[in-house]
Amino acid sequence: MGDCIFCKIAGKEIPASLVYEDDQLVAFGDANPQAPTHMLIIPREHIPSLGHLDSGHDQLVGRALRLAAELAKGKGLGERGYRVVVNCGPDAGQSVGHLHFHVLGGRVMGWPPG
């Protein structure tokens, strides 16, 4: 999508602190971190939000969640814990209209969130 900042990051039109990439997924550090470790995982395919997924995306979402666990473990978060968050829509705090998974850790997380 032309104006999507995450599409531009995935296409390397905008620099980002990449921590992982393959043919379907890109992961990078959040520009406005909310925890000592805060990474985003995005699909290369432009999918506006979780609400736009269909059964054809099942494998992609599974890979993204597995990647979240692998990246968290690689950052040393496996023992103490981490959080994976997907905001869907403006009322939930989704500020970029491209599906993304937040991986947060390195501090105690409160509950309930928000």
Low-confidence stretches: none
Average pLDDT = 95
Order of helices and strands: HEEEHEE
Strand order of the largest sheet: 1-2-3-5-4
The overall strand count is: 5
Beta-sheet strand percentage?
Answer: 15-25%
Radius of gyration, in Å, reads 14 Å
- CATH class reads Alpha Beta
CATH superfamily membership = HIT-like
Q: Sum up the overall morphology in one term.
A: globular
- Class from helix and strand fractions: alpha+beta
The tally of helices reads 2
CATH topology (fold) name: HIT family, subunit A
Q: Percent helix among the residues? A: 10-25%
How would you characterize the overall build of this protein?
- The longest helix has 17 residues.
- This protein is of the alpha+beta class and 114 residues long.
- A five-stranded antiparallel β-sheet has the order 1-2-3-5-4, with helices on one face.
- The chain has two helices and five strands; from the N terminus they run H-E-E-E-H-E-E.
- The chain is globular and about 40 Å long.
- The chain has one domain: HIT family, subunit A (2-Layer Sandwich).
- A hairpin with a 3-residue loop joins strand 1 and strand 2.
- 20% of the residues lie in helices and 22% in strands.
